[in-house]
Design goal:
This protein has 166 residues and is α+β, with helices and mostly antiparallel strands. It has four helices and five strands. A five-stranded antiparallel beta sheet has the order 2-3-1-4-5. A hairpin with a 4-residue loop joins β2 and β3.
Length: 166
């Protein structure tokens, strides 16, 4: 069999010697950026009902998860080693209970005026909101599952507007 050579994109966060590095974005223009992400936390019906009743020992889950997601987006560069700090102009996190899951679906939108995109911030917002839900409801369901965290769309910069296929 003949080997097939696949063209791969150059990794921008790896220097010539193979060491991880922060990309220099100083020559890129500042543009309006937006990123959207989503994910979910699957849980038992009993855990979802306890969240909806608001009677968990750690307090109100959905509002706390929303605030945690916003904080997560704002602190992304402190968590992801090569991520540039961004002055975010808007972060929104929505946590929607879904009895068919059962669980909570999470969506985030992040905006900024920057030289680099806000995809990591949108993804981090969803991840931190999900982790907060698990932390606050684990007394009812220790086996919740965080899943499906994905970038849905991005706008701005050289690559323009992109939306997840499907």
């Amino acid at each position: 069999m003949k080997a097939v050579r696949v063209k791969t994109a150059k990794l921008t966060h790896v220097g010539p010697s193979g060491d991880a590095r922060m990309v220099d974005i100083s020559a890129k223009p500042v543009t309006s950026r937006e990123a959207r992400a989503r994910g979910s936390v699957k849980m038992s019906s009993a855990a979802l009902e306890a969240i909806l009743r608001g009677d968990l020992p750690k307090g109100e889950v959905i509002g706390t998860a929303r605030i945690a997601g916003i904080q997560g987006a704002k602190r992304t560069s402190e968590l992801i080693p090569m991520c540039h700090p961004l002055a975010l102009t808007m972060v929104d996190v929505v946590c929607r209970p879904d009895k068919t899951l059962p669980g909570i679906r999470i969506e985030s939108v992040v905006r900024c005026e920057a030289r680099t995109g806000a995809e990591m911030e949108a993804l981090t917002a969803v991840a931190v909101a999900a982790l907060t839900i698990v932390d606050m409801a684990k007394s009812v369901d220790r086996w919740m599952t965080i899943g499906g965290i994905e970038l849905v769309a991005k706008r701005g910069g050289k690559s323009g507007d992109l939306r997840r296929p499907g």
